[in-house]
Write a structure and sequence with these properties.
α3 runs parallel beside α4 and α8 crosses α11. The chain folds into two domains: about 190 residues, 3-Layer(aba) Sandwich (Rossmann fold); about 190 residues, Rossmann fold (3-Layer(aba) Sandwich). The strands form two sheets. A seven-stranded parallel β-sheet has the order 3-2-1-4-5-6-7, sandwiched between helices. Strands 10-9-8-11-12-13 form a six-stranded parallel β-sheet, with helices on both faces. The longest helix is centred in the first third of the chain and has 25 residues. The chain is an alpha/beta fold. InterPro entries: Glyco_trans_19 (IPR003835).
């Protein structure tokens, strides 16, 4: 497990149940906020007096988390964009590291965001504060050299996917498969009729979900292509209904995009109900990321799209280890759903690929079976399993 093993025993013992385990956490984007909030639920069942603080989002705060910074302050997409924000984010990390070294929490939990978390975890581990990483950096997909930073930085990795612990073990890193929390949240048989009722949709309508992402940069890159694709689909099939979930911070930008494309009357914009939209839809047009896994767990066919700044894409593509970027395709090691990337993500191509699912019910049925198998594999009660693993690590 590398240098992390040299931490002093006096700093490793957990607070007794109810006495208030003090945990520092960092989640750097909205998907991490969701993961961390679920983990906090499980940890509170084991440590009733849990005290958790650091950098996070509204879902974590709803679990009693004290946020010194919002996760949105750390959200960066792409290498070039990261370079622009480097000084600001590095300053946040330096100040936070100094605070943690002074306050000495019982445990540091980094949630995804390995570029931010690994350097901080390494510093804390060296100082005897055990660091655990929730979400294994995707060394199996790109930037495999990060495995050395993981080994130097963390005591343990809580893995969301079943193949990751074995991969880490080859490099001397301890890991535990805890399952994916989204698989626990989403029903094996999603209630499409109930979801449509909650959204005010006709139960007999054909519904297309538009999921261009939850980050400013993603919306800037994909909102207009998605809306132009929706307009093309609506021209061909006027009966289609379109629903686009988002959060309050992106609402003004998306409302302007709807006006610009003339789609404000055709696209229903909803706040904070992404899972409801995924359950309600017949097909999804979705940005690569966690939302692709969520759509798969809802057993919905999809078309995955992604665009980023050209230099960021070129650098990332040089380090890519799989032929896919979408989680459903990576996990199944097969091109189950279309991926339209960079210049491929044109409105005409997006519309054509999305409508193709509506014309092939046999392919949709096969896809749903594959997604059901994936769901069963990932459904492990992550909050309970991760909390148990954390307790074992602290007692070691």
């Amino acid at each position: 497990m590398g240098p992390a093993s040299s931490a002093s025993p006096a700093s490793l013992g957990p607070s007794p149940p109810g006495a208030g385990l003090r945990v520092a956490m960092v989640a750097a984007e909205r998907s991490g906020d969701q993961l961390a909030a679920l983990l906090l639920q499980g940890m509170r069942q084991r440590w009733s007096g849990l005290q958790a603080s650091g950098i996070g989002g509204p879902l974590m705060q709803a679990q009693g988390f004290v946020a010194h910074h919002s996760c949105d302050e750390l959200t960066v997409r792409g290498l070039v964009e990261g370079l622009w924000a480097y000084r600001r984010i590095s300053a946040i990390r330096r100040r936070y590291a100094a605070d943690l070294l002074r306050e000495r929490p019982d445990l540091y939990l980094g949630v995804d965001a390995s570029d931010f978390n690994l350097p901080l975890e390494r510093q804390l581990n060296r100082a005897g504060i055990p660091a655990i990483q929730l979400v294994c950096p995707s060394i199996w997909a790109w930037r495999p050299g990060r495995v050395h930073a993981i080994r130097r930085s963390v005591r343990h990795v809580l893995c969301l996917f079943p193949f990751e612990p074995e991969l880490l073990a080859r490099h001397g890193i301890a890991g535990t498969f805890v399952g994916h929390p989204v698989a626990d949240l989403i029903a094996l048989e999603p209630d499409q009729a109930g979801a449509r009722q909650r959204l005010g949709l006709d139960p007999e309508a054909t519904v297309v979900a538009l999921l261009p992402g939850s980050r400013v940069a993603e919306i800037a890159a994909l909102a207009m292509p998605f809306l132009h694709a929706a307009r093309l689909m609506a021209q061909q099939r006027p009966q289609l209904r379109f629903v686009l979930p988002t959060h309050e911070g992106l609402r003004p930008t998306l409302e302007q995009a709807l006006r610009t494309t003339g789609m404000e009357a055709r696209v229903q914009l909803v706040l904070g109900q992404a899972h409801t939209v995924q359950a309600a839809c017949d097909v999804a047009l979705v940005a690569s990321g966690t939302a692709t896994l969520e759509c798969a767990l809802h057993k919905r066919p999809m078309v995955i799209a992604y665009r980023m700044q050209w230099l960021s894409w070129w650098v990332a593509n040089q380090q890519r280890r799989t032929p896919w970027i979408g989680l459903p395709n990576i996990l199944c090691q097969q091109s189950l759903v279309p991926e339209l990337l960079q210049q491929q993500a044109q409105p005409e191509a997006l519309a054509r690929a999305t409508l193709a699912w509506l014309d092939d019910p046999a392919a949709v049925a096969r896809l749903r079976q594959r997604f059901t198998d994936m769901h069963l594999q990932l459904r492990q009660d992550m909050p309970a399993r991760a909390s148990h693993a954390i307790a074992q690590i602290l007692q070691a």
